[in-house]
Write a structure and sequence with these properties.
This protein is α/β, with parallel strands linked by helices and about 280 residues long. The chain is built from seven helices and 15 strands. A hairpin with a 2-residue loop joins strand 10 and strand 11.
Length: about 280
């Protein structure tokens, strides 16, 4: 297995390109669509850099996998699928997320059965990537539909753990739960110490490189879990979440990402519109 990681500075998001060196089959995990919130313009510069590497390495894209319906960036899954093929996949519990936000955005004709994705992936499901196996682990708490992907001795964990110096995912989004998140963190920590953990985000200080990779042993020293039990973690997580603002891109991101990255259907003037519901989420 080979892995190349890309960092989108604007959203502090890592996209991972994983491939089997024998078959040249590849998977993309958590792809980012460029989005300028000020102008409402989308672009594919970040995704195209990954596509360029796919082509240079003569890789065949088989899967475009999301760890969850992200609230901090728009997914580039449709662009990858159009340019390179492949199936989109997300956690099988995504209908629970869709149902909540269908109401928030008043999406009256929106199907909340996950049918926008090619694959709904549940606990224990396995995908074949050449000679590699991608095992699906249910790791909810940040959202009810969060999954992690185990490939060999590596875990791609979405937002559950951030870098050890930074902490863990928030658990105050609709359907999130600090107690459930703690159980998912404990599950990840049950893996051998040398298991590689590929992160989804990092927020480095000026002049520092973003950290996309650590180990289970590193995460035992995570500032939110070291030396604490479930009760302490839940208290810390709830207090911290109560002080956090909503992510800048949550409103555009969620309504796109529950559609598997598809933008809303253009209206009769040929323009697609995103909704900004007033006084519906956050404080």
């Amino acid at each position: 297995m080979e892995v190349k990681t890309y960092f989108d500075k604007d959203t502090a998001t890592f996209t991972h390109l994983v491939w089997d060196t024998s078959s040249r089959q590849a998977a993309i995990i958590d792809p980012v669509l460029d989005f300028n919130y000020r102008s409402g313009r989308t672009a594919t510069h970040s995704a195209d850099a990954v596509i360029s590497d796919l082509k240079q390495r003569d890789l065949s894209l088989k899967y475009i996998l999301e760890t969850h319906a992200h609230a901090d960036h728009l997914s580039a899954a449709p662009h990858f699928k159009e340019q390179c093929g492949g199936q989109t996949g997300i956690g099988a519990n995504v209908p629970a997320v869709q149902e909540v936000f269908k109401g928030v955005f008043n999406m009256q004709d929106f199907a909340t059965d996950g049918s926008q994705f090619d694959l709904l992936l549940g606990e224990g499901d396995t995908l074949t990537l050449g000679e590699l196996s991608i095992k699906v682990l249910s790791t909810p708490g940040h959202t009810p539909a969060c999954v992690s992907y185990q490939i060999g001795d590596a875990l791609f964990i979405g937002d559950t753990f951030l870098a050890p110096r930074y902490g863990t995912a928030r658990a105050d989004f609709p359907g999130g739960d600090a107690s459930t998140l703690y159980q998912s963190l404990e599950r990840i920590l049950s893996f051998p110490d040398d298991t590689r953990i590929y992160l989804c985000h990092d927020y480095p200080e000026a002049g520092s490189d973003p950290q996309y990779l650590c180990t289970v042993a590193d995460q035992r020293n995570n500032i939110h879990v070291q030396g604490s039990g479930a009760d302490d973690f839940i208290k810390l997580r709830k207090e911290r979440d109560a002080a956090l603002e909503m992510p800048v891109l949550i409103l555009p991101a969620i309504q796109v990402n529950i559609r598997a990255g598809q933008l809303p259907t253009p209206e009769d003037n040929g323009v697609a519109y995103l909704k900004i519901p007033l006084n519906q989420i956050g404080k």
